Amino acid sequence: MNVAAMRRLALALLTPLGSWRERLTALVMILFVAGAVTARQSPPQVPRAYDVCSVKQSSGESSAFRSDPGGGFTTTGTTTAVLVASAFDVRDFQVFGLPSWATTDLYDVACKNTASNDVKPPISRISSGIQVLLSDRFRLRYHRESRPLPVATLRIGKSGMMVAPSKGDVHRVGYGPTSIHAEGISMGELARIVTSLTHEKVIDKTGLTGFYDFDLAWTPEDSPLPDVSLMANVLSDRLGLTITRSVENTEVIVVDHVEKPAGN
Question: pTM above the 0.70 mark?
Fold first, then answer.
């Protein structure tokens, strides 16, 4: 996949969650590439998105994220694992080969692009910028592979969709361990939300192209986060959707080399 294609497909939205870890790992549109294992490659040649980047070890007292004009961002209490997943628009379970410190050591990162004052830059600009940051400061080297991973498929049930398409143009999304509030979202977005909640890839195969409003709530069971079985019951009862599970070849990022970041 070339850089231009990756930019078009990368990071379609940020869902407002409680922490930067959650916001990054809930980034959407996870890329799937079926077929044979891809050849080992170097990091893509993406434009240098940031003029200035500061990376410091974090005290861990807070975890927050703020996007800035020009595609810059400031984050506190972020792991290297989260940065890697965000840079390549994948979930944490699609990243392999990271050392243990990459999931525990926390960093405060501030990146600025003084050459642009675009108030609402494409989110893909943040993604490509993080790739450059990881290459320069963390000495990241990686390759892509296609590996069999559990996949859940979202489809319309026998009774049909129980919610009519939205007639408004409002788009609001909020979700957590026990609820989803949606205004004007697509089924693709719903699939990504369920992916974020269950940590299992969910693919939209409903064929629905409209946007929908709904509120879902459920009672947590043994785990603080819902699993696919629980979400299947909720979506079936409230929306008329089904979830079936299988194993499919899924694109993953395999880390060949990464270092703790050099000083500023």
Answer: no
